């Protein structure tokens, strides 16, 4: 997670660097004759930096740095799921969602397919009413493997929707 946080923060420095180049480029464009290829290249540089920054921001908001199960604040209240990601500036953003909002990605898969999915670099986590997140089980540190397995297969107590 530290490396990913560094990448997200470098995105901000990348934008500052491109903005610092914009003033000399603009001055040169205003005072001298510039070939159209140079103008196109400068524009492509700025646009490329913007697209790269946007892509990093898009995925940093979806890459799960920490997944935690929170007990209910009052007795009888179902537990909640805390999904921690990074915001635009590389700071931690905690999103608390109802446990039932998580669509278990491994719920209807046979055991061999579950093992294969857990070996993938990123496991998609769909949360109803929120965005799709990406969890790295393969490269992440798992504190309680049994609890994580129960969560991802939909077998955790309080995870199923109750019938009224």
TrEMBL record:
Tell where it localizes: Mitochondrion inner membrane
Q: Which UniProt keywords apply?
A: Membrane, Mitochondrion, Mitochondrion inner membrane, Transmembrane, Transmembrane helix
Q: Does the keyword Mitochondrion apply?
A: yes
What is the topology of this protein in the membrane according to its UniProt annotation?
Multi-pass membrane protein
Q: Which domain of life is it from?
A: Eukaryota
Q: Where are the transmembrane segments?
A: 12-34, 40-59
Q: Name one GO cellular component term.
A: mitochondrial inner membrane
* Source species: Chlorella variabilis (Green alga)
Name of the protein? Transmembrane protein 186
Principal localization reads mitochondrion
Family recorded in the similarity comment = Belongs to the TMEM186 family.
């Amino acid at each position: 997670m530290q490396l990913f946080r560094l990448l997200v923060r470098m995105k901000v420095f990348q934008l500052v660097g491109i903005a610092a180049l914009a003033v000399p480029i603009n001055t040169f464009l205003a005072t001298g004759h510039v070939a159209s290829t140079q103008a196109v290249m400068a524009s492509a540089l700025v646009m490329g930096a913007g697209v790269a920054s946007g892509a990093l921001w898009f995925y940093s908001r979806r890459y799960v740095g920490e997944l935690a199960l929170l007990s209910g604040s009052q007795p009888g209240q179902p537990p909640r799921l805390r999904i921690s990601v990074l915001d635009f500036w590389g700071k931690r953003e905690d999103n608390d969602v109802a446990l039932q909002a998580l669509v278990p990605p491994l719920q209807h898969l046979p055991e061999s397919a579950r093992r294969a999915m857990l070996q993938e670099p990123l496991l998609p986590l769909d949360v109803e009413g929120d965005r799709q997140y990406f969890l790295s089980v393969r490269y992440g540190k798992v504190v309680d493997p049994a609890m994580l397995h129960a969560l991802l297969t939909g077998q955790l107590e309080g995870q199923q929707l109750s019938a009224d």
